[in-house]
Amino acid sequence: MIHRIAALLVALVALAPVAARAQEALPTSLRVGTSGDYAPFSETRGGVTAGFDVELAQRFAREAGFDIEWVTFDWPALAADVAAGRFDVAMSGITWTPERATVGFLTRAVAATGPCWLGASTPKRVGVNRGGALERFARRRFAGAEIHAADDNASVPDLLARGAVDAIVTDRFEIAHWRRAGWPEHCEPATERKVYWVSPERAGDLGPRLDAWLARNEAFVDALRARWLRASAPRGDADHAIDLVARRLALMPAVARAKAARGLPLVDAAREQKVLDGAR
Predict the structure, then answer these.
(1) What does the mean pLDDT of the chain come to?
(2) How far apart are CA 240 and CA 243, in angstroms?
(3) Residue ranges in 71-178 assigned as alpha helix (H)
(4) Three-state SS across 2-43?
(5) Which of 95, 144, 177, 193 has the fewest C-beta atoms under 10 angstroms from its C-beta?
């Protein structure tokens, strides 16, 4: 027993310098990706960026001891920017999608929304922001329409205002900033989730840390919802559990395709049991 204790102490002493170096290596700044064109999450006016995600990022950084470095991104380049680590985390009304879930770390949901469109109910020409989840919705929902994808999200309403399109695609939060008299409104159910997208390089440390902070600070997050998103919508552990199940179901088609391509069985009972045992 004495020899074992001595060996353990030696190992701990040997590891101490390594742990210290790892602690010293942790970054003190937080590079936050923001678009600045997506109200009410992130909107830049007169050189000042404000919104739900901006205020949340500032609070998290302050409590975690980070100095924020804001990095502006364009929606068409978002996925490439995250993969390349151009910033540590994208916080700008990011929608969870199965494709995004394969890169880096996507946090627990902070809000639920759904796509909407303003204008004709069955448009032949549709304006939408390029590169985001809404463009995918537009191309699926209006498969026979001519899609006008704009690189500048803030310019999309002008497409409808000047008659370049018959309708524009938005969501349940942004629609409040885009609606105008005489523009009919149409919305799908609120089944999509807003999250934060952590780069692969920071997925191991920043991802779980931000996730845990969101869970601990739900009261503060909900106060932000009431102020920026115009309605309180508390999210508890049950909501998070349901969301995780929904994410897994959304990923299943891609998993099935990957297994089929590798000649693997679709159902692996031993693996499923291991997952269930780990959840107990």
Answers:
(1) 90
(2) 5
(3) 78-84, 98-101, 133-141, 156-161, 175-178
(4) HHHHHHHHHHHHHHHHHHHHHHHHCCCEEEEEECCEECCCEE
(5) 144
Mean pLDDT of 70-88: 97
Q: What is the pTM assigned to this prediction?
A: 0.84
- CA angle, 93 then 83 then 208, to 5°: 65
Cβ atoms 94, 154 nearer than 8 A? no
What tokens does 183 get? 């523009």
Beta strands across the sheet bearing 37-38: 37-38, 42-45, 48-50
Same CATH fold assignment for domains 25-112+192-252 and 115-187: yes
Q: What architecture is the 115-187 domain classified under in CATH?
A: 3-Layer(aba) Sandwich (3.40)
- pLDDT above 70: percentage of residues in the chain: 90
Place of tokens 């399109």: 165
Determine contact, residues 38/93, Cβ cutoff 8 Å.
yes
DSSP 47: T
